[in-house]
Specification:
CATH architecture of one domain: 3-Layer(aba) Sandwich
Distance between the termini: 93 Å
Strand content: 25-35%
Largest sheet: 8 strands, mixed
CATH topology of one domain: Rossmann fold
Number of strands: 42
Number of helices: 9
Helix content: 10-25%
């Protein structure tokens, strides 16, 4: 008996439902077009013609009742604005002679009510994995001009199968190695810095236990899935059931085992002499590009590897070049960090490299203190809804009962954040200096201006907690768009920002950012605490998720957010790391352009606590970080269960009781 083990097609089939034969006399859409899973009325689509033999050029396509223009094997069409939610798309094709060859309704492309996300190019999610050579979806907000702006491991990704305002479907190269790869958006196409998603290229390696199977005997077929340890589904088919029987049935779906040996194992039994064929098909995960796609972007910047190298600033360039030569890397940047006596080197890695694995290799080099990817952290604030409440924050924490001389005078607070609108009337005279560590320039950004108003606002309807503190603005984050409240901060920017704050002798460091564990940032935070600086950080918005950093680091005052009634801000992260609660729901502060606005988030709570620290240090300049924390803990107003808890920490910040010795005046 001769055996042939044949791979099935590793392709995502078009989910289309053909109309009855009388209405579709000469074919169906399946295998002819691949549509995005969701489309919107009035949006422009691009579709690849998958089988030009059955639908030759020169014919007429209609999608949703609108005529499509065909050019070089692609269709462009703008859907009618009259389409309704939940409606299936009608698809017809007439050949050049006018004969109807295709008439179908595509149920995969469900028309949704909302339009596309707008003119801004964004990437927010992906299908996660696909077989090499097959199709994966990329979710976000796309304009036709941005469809050509996607990159794979830093190289242009041109093989589009379909595109719309919310999803672009691309084919991975057939020779792509199994494992993780990065799809990103080029800045030249309008994509922001952080917009990139991880996808995994998968391969199925088949193996038959022996070269032939005798009649009545059995042999094992092993299908090993390369590229992931996750459990995936394979569809198995026995194309020659008269020659062999397949354990589990002639047509079945079989989950892989998961883990390092991620495989499916089945037995075949010989029935008669002949060649037999077994087909397999990897079942792709569903495309997650729903109208409200979740944000699931890569936690680090692609193509970048960081290392801390001990030594002087003068020796850093040579040390960086030597490391690059040893590990086949490229030196992109090198920054001395005088506060810790080391240098931070940014290396470029090959486009197809696994960055975490490259970091693990580099950190084994004795010339390196540590190595890691360039992680991304985010600010922790959201715009409030259209019906904000009154400005309650100062009253809630007792700041309105402090004497005028309790104002933070003589204390420098480093706001490690985005840029700040220094010309805002509420901040006139409050900013002692500004420094940009992002290379994007000093810009009047929303998030930083909001934090600055809470800390040191002096006029214009915004009264900060410490209006006479000296505000050192350290731009270590950049907004996702010019008027966005959300911003991203990389490991490099934060490390350099913290170093700058320490070099300028700031006593308080306010960090309204949250991210994953980051050893480079942790090294700078630890140095700040050792040198007597008080570090305040936002608790983040992960609910019951992992504790965010830097808030979860030892010695950091972690601030969570509450509303005017003392109720916890629902998205706030819970955990034993939480130290204090402060206002953070519908609070008022300054925004660029001499305006004010209400917003919410643990970012606000961190700024209120940082301002309170400045008042405490004004009274006792020699207070240590632990003494400051103890003063707040013993004067906080208990919230939730009695005593310290994972929601509110020690309770609600009471700056009046913490600063004043006559607590009766704080009632």
């Amino acid at each position: 008996m001769t055996i042939l083990l044949r791979a099935g097609l590793l392709a995502a089939a078009l989910c289309a439902q053909a109309l009855p034969a009388a209405q579709a006399p000469a074919g169906a859409v399946d295998g002819l077009l691949l549509l995005p899973p969701f489309v919107s009325p009035g949006e422009e689509l691009e579709l690849a013609v998958l089988d030009p033999v059955l639908t030759p050029p020169g014919g007429r396509w209609e999608i949703g009742g609108a005529a499509a223009v065909e050019d070089a094997g692609r269709l462009r069409v703008r859907l009618p604005t009259t389409l309704t939610p939940g409606q299936d798309l009608s698809i017809t094709y007439r050949d050049p002679a006018g004969n109807l060859r295709v008439a179908a309704r595509a149920a995969a492309a469900r028309v949704v009510a909302a339009g596309t996300a707008g003119a801004e190019a964004r990437i927010v999610d992906s299908g996660g994995s696909a077989a090499a050579g097959e199709v994966v979806c990329v979710c976000g907000s796309f304009t036709p001009a941005s469809w050509d702006g996607l990159t794979l491991d830093g190289r242009p990704l041109r093989d589009r199968v379909s595109a719309s305002g919310r999803v672009v479907m691309v084919r991975l190269p057939a020779d792509l190695p199994a494992g993780p790869h990065v799809i990103a958006g080029a800045a030249s196409a309008g994509f922001p810095l952080r917009d990139a998603v991880l996808v995994r290229a998968l391969r199925v390696a088949p193996r038959l236990e022996r070269g032939e199977v005798l009649r009545g005997q059995s042999a094992a077929v092993q299908l090993t899935l390369e590229g992931t340890e996750d459990i995936m589904a394979l569809r198995l088919t026995n194309a020659t059931p008269d020659v062999v029987s397949l354990e589990g049935g002639a047509a079945q779906e079989a989950p892989t085992s998961g883990g390092e040996r991620n495989q499916v194992r089945r037995m075949v039994r010989g029935l008669r002499k002949g060649r037999f064929r077994l087909g397999y098909e990897l079942m792709p995960p569903p495309c997650p590009c729903e109208p409200a796609a979740r944000t699931a972007r890569v936690p680090f910047l692609p193509g970048r590897l960081l290392a801390l190298v001990p030594g002087t600033a003068e020796a850093l360039p040579a040390a960086a070049r030597a490391l690059a030569a040893t590990h086949a890397l490229v030196v992109l940047e090198a920054h001395p960090l005088p506060s810790i006596g080391e240098g931070l080197v940014v290396f470029g890695v090959p486009a197809d490299a696994d960055v975490p694995r490259a970091a693990a290799t580099l950190r084994r080099d004795p010339r390196v203190t540590l190595a890691q990817p360039d992680f991304v952290h985010e600010t922790a604030a959201l715009q409030s809804g259209p019906q904000p409440v009154h400005d309650y924050a100062r009253r809630l924490i007792g700041a309105d009962r402090l004497p005028p001389q309790a104002n933070g005078a003589g204390v420098t607070v480093a706001l490690v954040d985005t840029g700040v609108d220094a010309d805002h009337r509420a901040l006139k005279g409050a900013i002692s200096a500004q420094v940009d560590l992002t290379g994007r320039g000093l810009t009047p950004d929303v998030h930083g201006t909001l934090m600055a108003g809470i800390l040191a606002g002096r006029a214009g309807g915004v009264e900060g907690v410490a209006p006479r503190a000296a505000l050192l603005v350290v731009k270590a984050c950049h907004p996702e768009s010019p008027r966005a409240i959300n911003a991203v901060c990389t490991s490099v920017w934060l490390a350099r920002g913290l170093d700058a704050a320490l070099q300028r002798d700031a006593r308080v460091l306010s960090l309204s950012v949250a991210g994953r564990p980051d050893e480079v940032v942790a090294r700078l935070v630890a140095q700040a605490v050792r040198s007597g600086r008080v570090v305040v950080a936002a608790a983040g918005h992960e609910g019951g998720g992992s504790p965010p950093h830097p808030a979860a680091l030892d010695g950091v005052l972690a601030a969570t957010a509450v509303d005017a009634g003392g109720a916890l801000y629902p998205p706030a992260t819970r955990g034993s790391f939480v130290d204090l609660a402060a206002p953070g729901v519908d609070v008022l502060s300054s925004v660029p352009g001499n305006q004010v606005a209400f917003f919410s988030g643990t970012s606000a709570a961190a700024a209120y606590v940082a301002g309170a620290v400045a008042l405490l240090l004004q009274r006792g300049p020699r207070e240590s970080p632990s003494a400051v924390a103890h003063a707040f803990e013993r004067t906080a107003r208990d919230l939730g269960p009695p005593g310290r808890d994972d929601q509110f920490g020690s309770g609600l910040l009471d700056v009046c009781r913490a600063v004043r010795t006559d607590h009766e005046a704080c009632r």
